[in-house]
């Protein structure tokens, strides 16, 4: 009996702290937050007092339902006003996915709000049941929760309507030093014109929040009684559930930078995440991508880029470029500010006149394959067939075995290739969504009448890449939602699409464009060869001999299974690309389609300490593969024995496909004669590799001694590389000197960037030294 009384008292105290739930023991009828020992009679005066106290279980459920209902109304308002066409061309599966993930994001928000805001208020009210102050604070807290959530959601709705994008990292960038920039006054005036709309939105937020709060207070408050041990168990389960929902594995998937994409209509994805969660995601992205100097003007950032490479000013860089032969000798020594004009012309080149290309432009497909590292491909053998279907194509095309990646990760590599910008951070939504980079890869193709399409195997919400691509010269953007809508089995369990279906989609696009006689440029970014290494059930299963790829097979079963999955994913990516080439080879457009493919960085399968002894080249090596139809093969010999890099790919494609077209480029074509001083590759914007040796441009450490190379030629290449990288970084900053209006420009009329060479600038582009 004594033990029973002690346990009952302990359970009552625990439930008292956690705000006991009356739903579990309604029949007992005892006081909730005034627990008494089990053998103590209840005083008569206690029965006359009936406090209304919050039940934690009911409170969580009602707040969840009310929050979801309010956000759903606002989401539907957004669909009706911003994307009315979505009602007709969005299928049932997409709508169900949209509702499901919206509910999950709202559950995530409610779990945070309950734990950090409403639960402390509920406990305070329960502890001070007889205090009017506790009643008022709890009611005010509930009302504030709904009004703030609704107000933020309606504010984002207005932002999406006016600026064409939901809240993002640019919001926090704008708040830093607001008022210090000249354009801030114009932005404030623009916002002032929307005050009536903002006032109406505030009234709607208050009215909707009041209705939600009334429902919550009406159904979550119950009569007081004594807590029991069953109440403590229920409340422990409620709080545990909130913790799992808010910080557990389901929440991690929702908070990944890849984001969630559920429908072909981009506006549905924009409306999917509730505003408080989006603000947290935007703040994380802002902190992750913020670098020193973000608040500087483009001119100041460009000057800093020059100094970081050892050049005092623009005139010093012009002098270095002239000495290296990268500037026309007749341009002379630029006096004063004229150095800026010379540097603005320096990256511009022009492809030669070619009657065949003018009359019969080929289709061009460029594939940036995630995790296609060259070290894994170098291990291919009969005992370790990791090259898969690509083995029969590598030697049949142009396979550059001495290529290196420009950057260390997928996003920065995409930034380098998509924008032709050397400085990191150019592809951030707050910059790329408001700036049209004239060096963007698709613009020369678009200028010559190509239809340009960006295809990504993941979600368009990843770094807002879908909206950015449209700004940077692409007529169309295809992402995970479009591919899954055509091939339902393409979904890689929520982590993008399988590469095989992505390449199948690209092949269908080529067939459609070829039938219309429309030249097509496709920029492809795969998303399959990454964690958790999902592959279709019919992919090559292995098992693979892990000792061929690692010094020893791991003893741990879990690690061995992880490596098997990784090798299988690499092999599947090779099979998917090889099968695409097979289909292309036997299709009518085979003779008029150019294909280029490369990897974004080192294969993630070999990123571990066991292979830390890899040479610098093996660490940064990626393959570059080119397939060029016979009619378009250039006269120059392919530079298959040279060290090359990502910077050389698009100058090559421009020369192979475009006649008499200006372009921005910092590399050399992968065929023909190139001066010995420029026959090198730079990895990670730092490590130089060439047949003359290798050197760390930052520290000056040489990896190949003079006896194994050519010290004099290596020194010449190092000087040229420093000047070229300085120009790349400087020009990348100067491209954003003048930003466009926040509204994205229509795809058919891309906005221009004043201050630097534009799409059609004959005087500027022809003044640059042409590449022969």
TrEMBL record:
Family matches, as Gene3D superfamilies: Alkaline Phosphatase, subunit A (3.40.720.10)
Keyword Isomerase belongs to the record: no
Membrane topology recorded in Swiss-Prot or TrEMBL: Multi-pass membrane protein
Keywords (A to Z) from UniProt: Cell membrane, Membrane, Transmembrane, Transmembrane helix
Pfam families from the UniProt entry: Sulfatase
Signal sequence interval, chain numbering: none
Transmembrane segments: 61-87, 107-124, 136-155
Localization in the cell: Cell membrane
Primary residence: membrane
Every Sulfatase N-terminal domain range: 444-657
Region listing for Disordered, in residue ranges: 738-772
Alphabetical list of InterPro entries matching this protein: Alkaline_phosphatase_core_sf, OpgB/LTA_synthase_biosynth, Sulfatase_N
GO CC entries: plasma membrane
Taxonomic superkingdom: Bacteria
The protein's name in its UniProt record: Sulfatase N-terminal domain-containing protein
Organism of this sequence: Pandoraea faecigallinarum
Lineage of source species: Bacteria, Pseudomonadati, Pseudomonadota, Betaproteobacteria, Burkholderiales
